[in-house]
Design brief:
Layout (H helix, E strand, L loop, with lengths): L6 E5 L4 H12 L3 E6 L9 H9 L2 E5 L5 H11 L4 E4 L10 E3 L3 E3 L5 H11 L11 E5 L6 H5 L6 H5 L2 H18 L5 H4 L4 H4 L18 E6 L1 E3 L4 H8 L7 E3 L7 E3 H13 L1 H4 L2 E6 L1
Parallel strand pairs: 1-2, 1-4, 2-3, 4-7, 7-8, 8-12, 9-11
Antiparallel strand pairs: 5-6, 10-12
Length: 282
């Protein structure tokens, strides 16, 4: 097992991709600080409790939609090597359905406001580089990406307009800070209800082009299946697992555990993926 002794800050990792990524990293020798609205979520998690006792896991109570809480998470984590941001669109509340609007969530700007807070409070280290930043997004967000979806799942993605506006806002913020090209006509522009008025002038937000170490991962439709990559590795056979590309893949699904596998693999092969936006699918 290759070692990956990183100091990691995980935001939105109480479950799913963030959690599975954190567990894989802990298994490789990393230290992980979790920002959690309810640290009690791990009270019955024997694995995490073991890492807490060994000092490899820190739990910080806080809410990523509050700037003072993200600032405290950075401070308590120490010098961070990598940030995993996996705040999910259905993290809070129960989504409702509208014939006109599709799926509606009770906090429509959760991802965008959380990434703004995380970036606005990110420290500048005197003797260390910027953290590697991995952000979990989604396929099918933009018009071009939606057109590339398999026909059978296009209707479902059409109902995700509300949650996807939030993800587009999140990606827009990242593109601004990283200095990436953003096609407003094709990709859309988030409204003030998503990113807030004057978001570009928020104190602490990295200036355009100064956010240097970012990877946006856009998984296909997520499932609760097993990690195919682990199964293939254990078999010793050369078989296809998931695909990774900067181009649209037109894939149907990928499991959360395989997405987490790629998160950790990307951190281990960072030079190949830094400053990219990639799709992952079977």
């Amino acid at each position: 097992m290759a070692s990956l002794k990183l100091n990691v800050l995980a935001v939105g990792a109480s479950r799913n991709i963030g959690y599975f990524s954190a567990v894989r990293l802990l298994d490789k020798g990393a230290t992980v600080t979790f920002l959690l609205r309810s640290p009690a979520v791990f009270d019955d998690d024997a694995l995490i409790q073991g890492y807490i006792k060994s000092g490899h896991v820190r739990l910080v109570k806080g809410d990523a939609t509050k700037e003072e809480d993200t600032r405290r998470a950075w401070n308590e984590a120490g010098v961070v090597d990598a940030l995993i941001f996996s705040v999910g669109k259905y993290l809070r509340g129960t989504p409702s359905f509208s014939i006109l609007k599709g799926i509606v969530i009770d906090q429509p700007n959760l991802c965008a406001q959380s990434i703004l807070n995380v970036l606005c409070t990110m420290p500048t280290y005197a003797d260390a580089p910027q953290p590697r930043i991995i952000v979990i997004s989604s396929i099918g967000l933009t018009r071009t990406a939606h057109d590339a979806l398999p026909h059978l799942i296009k209707p479902m993605y059409s109902m995700l307009n509300g949650p996807h506006r939030d993800k587009i806002g999140m990606e827009r913020v990242l593109a601004h800070c990283a200095g990436w090209t953003w096609n407003s006509k094709a990709d859309g522009e988030p409204g003030a209800d998503i990113v807030g008025e004057g978001w570009r002038e928020r104190p602490g937000l990295p200036a355009p082009g100064t956010l240097k170490r970012v990877l946006v991962i856009r998984p296909a439709l997520l499932t609760d299946g097993k990690c195919v990559a682990d199964k293939v590795a254990a078999s010793g056979k050369e078989k296809k697992t998931y695909r990774v590309s900067e181009e649209e893949l037109g894939g149907y699904t990928i499991s959360r555990k395989d997405t987490a596998h790629f998160v950790v693999d990307a951190l281990a092969r960072w030079d190949e993926f830094e400053n990219k936006r990639v799709n992952v699918a079977y």
